[in-house]
Specification:
- The protein is of the alpha/beta class.
- The protein is built from 19 helices and eleven strands.
- The strands form three sheets. Strands 6, 7, 8, 9 and 11 form a five-stranded mixed beta sheet that branches.
- The protein is globular, with a radius of gyration of 21 Å.
- A hairpin with a 2-residue loop joins strand 4 and strand 5.
- Helix content is 44%, strand content 11%.
- Helix 2 crosses helix 15.
Length: 433
Amino acid sequence: MGNWKKKGLFAVAALLLTGLCACGKAKEPGVNLVSDDTGEEKTVNLYAAMGKSSADADNASMTAQEMAVKLVEERLGVTIEYRSYLAEDYKDKTYDDVAMERVHSNMDDFYLLNPDVIQRLGSEGELADLSGLKNAENLREVVITANTVDGKLVAIPQEVVAYGLFVNADLFQKYKLKMPETPEDLLECCRVLKENGFETPIGANRWWLENFVFAQAYADLYNGGDTQAQIDALNSGEAKYSDYMRPGFEFLQKLIDLGYIDAKKAYTYEAIDGEGPDFLAQKTPIVMAYWSAANVDTAYGAPDFKLKVIGFPSSRGQMPVVSMTGYGVGAKAEHLEDALDVMDVLVSDEGLRVYAEKNNVISPSKNVEVECKDALKPLNDKVNEGIYVLGSNAGMKVEQWGNTCLIVRNLLNGATVEECLAEFDRLQEESLQ
């Protein structure tokens, strides 16, 4: 799982970095703005991918995370001490490796965690139940579903990360193509584009092709009204993950066989850096990315064409795929009560609004909406309507995002569809033991 864990650091760091572009070692203890009744300063320790700006930094130069943390410090009279991950400090240990070790050793009070780590620590009972927080009642259902383990809400994000297809709408208009709703629609669009000289209609990288699989695998599970019953059947072994995944893997194989995706390039391409230049140069009409990439000028925020971001094609139409990192509180944290108070303010509508407005993202709160770019409205509308699939779900015994990513890479590297599905069967058997 080493490659997936490298991706884990990318996922956490990407969310924190978008605040600088979008719309560490532990530091010495700071001075609290307010002291508690005993005269003692309150400090709560956070393990995260990045450190804190200087104390006198203005809001324009602060990340969205820091602005939200500053709000918490002012409201509660606490100091949040960042304990940052620096690769050179940990050598071969990834961000996720270190997070697991720190939680197991109760080294910090709360942590910014990737989905697979949330799932594992939650199942081990290492994360506190956050469902009792006053502000948890304001969360979107997608957030609660994705981060509940054994009936406990074990993590809450600052952002709902929605993935979609980024489409050159000018080229679609030129060739009289409609935005694809179903897998068959996308195949037809690719056929027309290839006939008109676009050698590879879909630009892909080694990280995000699993979104095609998720959209087809779980469109009915998350939108058919019996979500928990189907998850229970998967967790018990009554149903098979491989049966759900089959249509997505067969579709990906067809895209490769027809030359609509270049498997060799996708296997080596990094996200955005690989396929991005051809998309921006209008040599490739379609790519896939996460919401914030449409806000960031160094990604897809300033193309020379009309951009539209839509959900992935599925039997139920365009389907956003949602994944999220989240904050978890150590169940045995030294400052447990203070950490829970911090979390309650951090995930309040006020705290989440500060973050969402700085980063221009979908908020976990159903009460917080931020005006988005026209390009993102199709994706935003779907999420607001409750139409989505989860790429990460802590309630599923087989971790989804990382495992599916790795198995898709096997497909890109020459594995057959049946071999890929057999790997899901193996993972499921392992989870049942």
